[in-house]
Amino acid sequence: MSTPFPEGFLWGGAVAANQLEGAYNEDGKGLSTQDVAPQGIKGPITEVPTEDNMKLVGIDFYHRYKEDVKLFAEMGFKVFRTSIAWSRIFPNGDELEPNEQGLQFYDDLFDECHKYGIEPLVTLSHYETPLHLSKQYDGWVNRKLVGFYERYARKVFTRYKDKVKYWLTFNEINSILHEPFMSGGIYTPKDKLSKQDLYQAIHHELVASATAVKIGHEINPQAQIGCMILSMPTYPLTPNPDDVIAAMKSEHMNYFFGDVHARGVYPGYMKRYFREHGIDIHMEPGDAEILKHTVDFISFSYYVSICETGDSSKRTQEGNLIGGAPNPYLKASEWGWQIDPQGLRYVLNMFYDRYQKPLFIVENGLGAKDVLVTGEDGVPTVNDDYRIEYLNDHLVQVGEAIEDGVEVMGYTSWGCIDLVSASTAELSKRYGFIYVDRHDDNTGTLERYRKKSFHWYKDVISTNGQSL
Ligand code: BGP
């Protein structure tokens, strides 16, 4: 039996600091935008952290990471994707000196990974902008954020130079289009935010991202620095050319971010969009040069595909932050996300044709309501065949894409251990191979249990995909 997965393929799992660490105010950490968003990405924000915010405790990874990394190692992880909580390092975001205790936590975490030969893959900014930067500066609308982010990036690149090789600059950078507070720390309410300010904020993030690529390479020439895009293949709902063009325009809004990161210039279709919408991006001298520091690889999340149509009344389908028209050929998860394994092969081919750069799937998985049962050995477990089926089907399509000639560096399944959902802020939307005894009413022992998928994934990794 052969496997399409190349030797050294980076198998692993992904999480984000704010969704599992907890310890939101320990060891000098400042508040982040997540600490005042008890109902998730779309919900209202509070003045101060409130007890119903599941993220304040998360799954207590901050204190239990050793046990969790050990379980990842047992599955055979080659890579573990997490983020650094910016507000652990610079509690307010705009101070000159970092918080040593925050830096030490990630030193210890990365050391623990290396103990088992697990390579960290680190996101610099994953929906957790220091709250002070949001309130005081209106997040990325303000040019000053570029400097604050640069200071932060420089500090962590230098500190973890010998411990972290793989970096991502912003999680799902294109999600700022839909969720400006969570993604861009923009305090101005969404309905009051002008397109001018939104695209200026995006420009600032793109400049910051390219700056990170530049300084990251100066600090460690071996570093591999990628962008991270929320991918959602958009099919025309019908062969009607109106639908085809609607799908193309919708894809442009996502490709735009990859285009700038991979090609170093703004694409023509965005210049047209800016012209037609009266948007005038203010470029500082040197910005065009900075943008030419393009990424080493393209990474993305993939959960769903969507259909697009010229008829907006048909856009009734939920997606990962972005919706569209329902695809009559696909079934949906309990949260209405339509499941499309072949869409992953499609998007891998699209990205590779467009950029000819290595690709990294850094999020993919199924959120589901799991039921804990007693296993044959008397130990609690979850018989999550639905998750195994979802992941297996998607990985088979990754194999197909590799056969198509696409260069894929690795795959990190989202929420490899149960954590708090970004969109709903609940723990009952579970993605993990590891069950965490924690519930939406803030109860639970926080004990960890291996699900059936834990053993399945272990086999996938140990056979380098042959068992799929
Ligand atoms: C992505 C985010 C993650 C994660 C995932 C699943 O958009 O990068 O942070 O949470 O989606 O989404 P959810 O938690 O809403 O199910």
From TrEMBL:
Which key words are in the record? Glycosidase, Hydrolase
Report the InterPro entries cross-referenced here.
GH, GH_1_N_CS, Glyco_hydro_1, Glyco_hydro_1_AS
GO MF terms, alphabetically ordered: hydrolase activity
State the Pfam families in the record.
Answer: Glyco_hydro_1 (PF00232)
Active site: which residues? 363
Q: Which family does it belong to?
A: Belongs to the glycosyl hydrolase 1 family.
Q: What is this protein called?
A: Glycoside hydrolase family 1 protein
Organism, scientific name: Paenibacillus tritici
